[in-house]
Structures are given as structure tokens and as C-alpha cells.
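Record type: ASSEMBLY
Status: queued
Input:
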Amino acid sequence: MRETQLILARKGIMTSEMKAVADYENMSVQTLAEKIAEGKVVIPANKNKVLKRAVGIGEGLTVKVNTNIGTSSDYINLEEEVKKLEVAIKVGTDAVMDLSTGGNLEEIRKTLLKRSPIPFGTVPIYQAAIEMVHKKGGIVHMTVDHIFSVIERQAQEGVDFMTVHCGVTLQSLERLKRQGRLTNIVSRGGAFLTTWMLYHGKENPLYDHYDRLLEIAQKYDITLSLGDGLRPGSLADATDRAQIQELVLLGELAQRAWEAGVQVMIEGPGHVPLDQVEANVLLEKKLCKGAPFYVLGPLVTDIASGYDHIAAAIGGAIAAWAGADFLCYVTPAEHLRLPTVEDVREGVIGAKIAAHVADLARGDKKAWEKDKKMAEARGRLDWKTQIESSIDPEKARYYRETSTPKISDVCTMCGKYCAIKLVKEYLAHKTPPHQP
Amino acid sequence: MRETQLILARKGIMTSEMKAVADYENMSVQTLAEKIAEGKVVIPANKNKVLKRAVGIGEGLTVKVNTNIGTSSDYINLEEEVKKLEVAIKVGTDAVMDLSTGGNLEEIRKTLLKRSPIPFGTVPIYQAAIEMVHKKGGIVHMTVDHIFSVIERQAQEGVDFMTVHCGVTLQSLERLKRQGRLTNIVSRGGAFLTTWMLYHGKENPLYDHYDRLLEIAQKYDITLSLGDGLRPGSLADATDRAQIQELVLLGELAQRAWEAGVQVMIEGPGHVPLDQVEANVLLEKKLCKGAPFYVLGPLVTDIASGYDHIAAAIGGAIAAWAGADFLCYVTPAEHLRLPTVEDVREGVIGAKIAAHVADLARGDKKAWEKDKKMAEARGRLDWKTQIESSIDPEKARYYRETSTPKISDVCTMCGKYCAIKLVKEYLAHKTPPHQP
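Status: finished
Output:
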């Protein structure tokens, strides 16, 4: 079995994954390998399988999007989860995470994993906790060995990246308590570990036995996604001492991962006011020495329930422009219900818009070509190309087809008074041929 | 009849409109009057009527949202336009513009104007152009007298603010031609005037006879919204010489408006990459000496057809945070069709989110109270307050009601593994009472 992409990159060995990513990113494979060697880019790809599409995440690359799917204890429908996976891939997600907490977790994960051509992530503490709920009646019955057996099982199956909330420590929890918060802990993994830690009065096993985690990650080349169990759950809690204490710890853990030859990225908030987004990205990049930053949203208001994909698109665009590398989507159902297939679709597109907008702001050539193609089609009143150039041609086509203009080369917004048509015809003929 | 709010503010006379606005904004009426006197704040309110809700726009005030409604030559349904007005008001628009270009324009405008409790705007050149199309067969048959007669008619009826594309001059058009563009002119008003100017080889009547415009505006206290007829219609055209040449002219015209005691605001783009949004706001504030800035979006990508309300929410949030004062909504139907009632609803909410997010970033107390109320309700698992605190309680309620959790105080996203519930119960009892 090969070594991790990180170790190989350090040795100057170019893998097929590196070549595929370099090609997609219009970057030389040497430059890419350097960035991987420095820990600034990751390619989540489990050694036990070959990804149909390898994806690079980090500095100098285009912004990537992740889609969370999975059952809950209240709603279990594997068929629907498969559909969510399919629609997310169709509209362009770069990675997917199975966050299932209801039903047969193994079966669900294996089914989704098999169908995913892109990097596949999990939060193994979910399965560890829920197995103990079913077997012994409570989360607190998790044992260290059991947690690591779940992690290893998932690694063997071919999971590419794992969220591990290693920074929820007795120290950071103490800081949280001392300071107080409006919404204490909103991370499920963080809450599971907190419950366990406070019950047993013991340190977080993922922190205490971090070397054991690194060993498994190294063995399978699992990219560790160091979770932010203490991320703010409201604007008022953003950038507080608990959050930053955890981030400081994650920076140290990232360094230890690199020393062990393990790829690592850092998870970030959450709920953050617009004016704090850039500072949060800068802090991560400084405290974690350039490790890729994976943000959830961020949501720039607490009150957008039903429209949190829009609040997340605003926060995500600014975060990515400031240097965040990987945007976890948020759906319109956030804070309200388990997302439906349609919610997933809307969520992915929202995050894709944020990522694209940041790529444009960063001057990415391919992104600019897309917008130029659309602009030229608009200038030509070429509707076929306009529809095809849309971020979601299906929806654009639906909108256009549901409202037919009387003149075929305009739309019903302006009809015959279409500005582009008026000016175009005038400039072409010098005298107005089409006098509406 | 009273004088304009600007003239009255200069004299230190506090109007009922100023008092209402100051009260809403938590600002002393003296401070507000100073800002109006300096031209940094406008209160669009026609002398011929009393607004149910006076609205202030400009520096130091909360960010406001405008909704464009109106028929097109391809789709005329007054009943539906009334519904659009109603839904826009229901979800919190601060102003509305009737951009009708199809059907009986007078009847449509009068009907909508009568039902609008908030500032009501128009683009009079539409009616001027379209009347000539119907009477004489072409836009080019507009005469100066006819244009001003339409403006005066609309002013008499009670229109509060008017978009006038005074900056589309022979000089700025020449700059545009010399430079070249991907999407020449995308403003309807700009295109009407351009067609007329190039056909006759004459200067823009709204520029040439600007004093006549100021006279009417002063007489009725119409707030002039100096339109950006040369706004970029694509990212590639943003912040180009044509756009900035027009903005320079608008700055001069704003100064002349103030000298005539006329309230004025400046319209801005359009299609602008994320990294140019802040500079665009700064330029407007400098070139136009602090006149309120009214932006359309801006759209931070060209390819979001079907989701342009999201692209506009991103651009609008950043623009408003940087100092833009008034956000014109963009609907998901933009670039594709005349918006439906549902499109209008989605568009207004998108713009409201952008405005609110900027208010938060600017530290507005009322905005923060809203988010804190929501965060506290989340912390308490108080669903009734969560729904009521949402930006659109109707939609939030729908989402929640379509997916019922097994335990009533959580949602189906996390079910019994709700992080807030787990931690809350643990912290309350010190030993986990609820062991999922």
C-alpha cells in the first residue's frame, strides 16, 4: 500500500491523484506537491480505493464545496439519501459527508460510499456514540477502544476524510464555562464528547490518544478534519475565548499531524458577523500555519431560518475570498428540519455560487471564462448558450420556458424594450431599424 | 405647500417625516436634519401626499431595500402587480418602484401608488418613450417638452422618487464606444436615451435641461435618483471608464441638485466582482460627496441565472457594509423572465438578509437585538419564538411543520442527538438525565 500523499509529496513522488488535481487546477504538479508537502493543500483519498475524481483543497486552488447528507434518528430513508448524493454530485459538489445518526449506520455508509466518485467524509464519533446508546443505553458508555475501533472500521471501508473534535478539551470547556455563552455547544460531535468528558471527569479521548488517531490516519491516508466542537452557534458567541482556545489547540494538533505524515485540515465556524469573517480566516491561517480551512457557512445572521443557504452564501463568499479553502454547504432547512432532496440541491448551488464568486475575486482564469461566456451570450441575445452557461441550467431553462416572450430573442422582463436589443440594433444599422 | 425636506433641514425646521425617521432610526432629529442638510440622507416624500411610513435613506441609518414591480410589454396583469406590491410590503420592503412598460401605464401607476404606504418611485422616461412608440411609432419621436410633461404629470400624482439617467451623455457614450464593452448598455432607460441621442445627434435632454428637471423636483420635493444608464452588465465591464465617467458627471449633478434645494441619491451597479464592490462604494461616496448610494445588487457573478437573488445578496451585503445605503432587490427571475409574485417574495427576502447582515456588521443595536432574541430562543429550545424571530416566519413555520420530530423540543435534523439539548440537560443536572 502507498504512503500518504503528504509523505510522498515530501519525497518528491507524484501520485496519480496529484497529477489529476494539478491538471484540474491548471497548476504544475511540482507546485502542487510542494504545497502538499508544506501541509497547505490536502488531497483526501483513502489508500484502500481509487477515487473517480481526486480533489485538492487548499492554498492556490479553486474553492471547494462539501455536501452533508445522512439520516437522523427522526427520519431514516436510505433511498432518499442516495438521491441527495446524486443531486449533490449533479450540481457540482466536490465532496460529501455522511452524517447519518439513524438506522443501520454501516449499511447506509457503505451504500453511499460505494456510489461516491468524490472524496467521502464521516464523523466517526457519531457511530461510536450511537452504538453505545443502542447497546448500553447511553453515550457515556463509549470506551476509548470502542471509539478507535469505529474509526479503524470506517478507515478500512474507504472513508477519505474524518471530522474529529480533538480540540474539545477539559481546558477549552473550562474556558467556555468561565466565559458563558448564548448558545453553549451546537456541534453534535462536540456535545457527545462533552457529555462523556463531564460525566467521567476525563480528557477527550481524541485529544488524549491523538497519536493513536494519527497512526490510523497515516495507515489509510485519512485526511483529518480537525472539528470545531466549540464553534459559535450564534453571532453573539463568535470569535470568543472558547472558540479561539480550541483553534490554538487545533493548530498544535495540525503540526503533530504533519510530523506524523498525516494530511490535515481545520474546521471553522459557524455563526460569524460579516465584519469578523476575514479575521477568522486570518487567525486560522496564522495559528494553524496555513493548513486548509474548512468553514461551515459561515452564517452571517442568526435569523435567516428558511434562507440559511443565502446567509451562508454571503459568509462563505467572503470567507473564501479571504482565504478559506473549503465551504460546507448549508441548506434552507438548517435549524428547522432534516433537509430534503430539494433542500440539498438549493444548498449546494448556494455554496457553489459563493465558491465561484470567490474564485472570480481571486482572479481564477477558468472562473472568469465562465462569466465571459455568459456575458458574450447575453450580448448576442443567444439564449441557448445563456441557459447552458448558467450555474444550474435546469432551473434557468424552467424559468425561461414558463414565460414565453413575444419576440424570441428577448425575455418577458423587458420584452421589445430590451436594452441590449435596442442598442445592438442601433449600433448595427446606425439608424434604428427596430423602432419599438 | 411645504418646501423640500432639504431646504427645511437647512433652515432647522423639523418635519413630521424627519421626526418619524429619527424615531425609527434611534437618532436625534437634530442629527438627522444635519445629515439631510448636508445631502447625506434623503427622505423621499412627495409634497402632494402624506406617506403612511416615511423612510430615511443614507449615512448612519439602517440599510433600506427597494422592490421593483410592474408590467412588461409581454406580460400585463395589474392584479398580479398589486399582489407583488402587497407581498413586498408584507415581507418588509422599504420602498417600491413601478417599472411598468406594458398596458395602461397611468392606470397601473395610480393603482399601485394609491396602495403604497411607503416611498414610491418611477422611471418617467419609460412612459415618455412608450407613449411615443404608441402615438408615433418610435422612441426617437420623444420631444424635450413631452419628456418633461410626463415627469411633471407623475410628480403631480405623488411619486416620491424618480430615476433619471442624466449621466448618459454624448461624452460618456463616446468613452464607452472608444473603450468597447462585452455588454454595452443594459439599462432600459439608458438604452431609450441612447437611441434618441444617437438618432438625433443631440445631447441627453435630461442632462441638457437639468435645471428644468430640478425645478420640478424642487416644486414637488421629488428625490432624484440619478440613474446609472451605463452600469456594467457583466463582470468584465465593471468599474470601466464609461461607468466611472458617468459617475463623475452624476457627482456634479448631485451638487447642482443640492444647490437647487433638491434631494438626490446616486444609483450604482450592477455586475461587479466581489473584490471591486468596496472600491465602487468608496468612489461613489467620494465623487458624489456623500450622497446616498442606491445599488442594484450588485451581482458578483454573471452565471447565477435562476439564483441571482443569492448573487445579489452577497454583493449587496458587502456593498452595504462598505457604506451603500439602499439595496435594490434582484429576484431569482432576473435575466430570465418578468418576476412572479413568488419571485418578488424571494427577492425581497434576499435583499432584506443582505441589509440586515450589513446592519449587524455596522453594529446596529436593533439588528443585534433580533439576532440575540433568536439565539436565546435556540438556547432554550423555544420553537415558537424561533419561528417568530425568523426573517420570514411563514416559511420557517412551513419547514418545521413539514417534518415533525419525535421529541417536541428538537428538530428532525438531529432528533434526540440535538447538541443544545444534550449539553443543556447535562449542565442542568450535572449527571446526564437524558441518555439518548
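Annotation: The two ends of chain B are 71 Å apart (CA to CA).
Annotation: Chain B has two domains: 5-363, 366-429.
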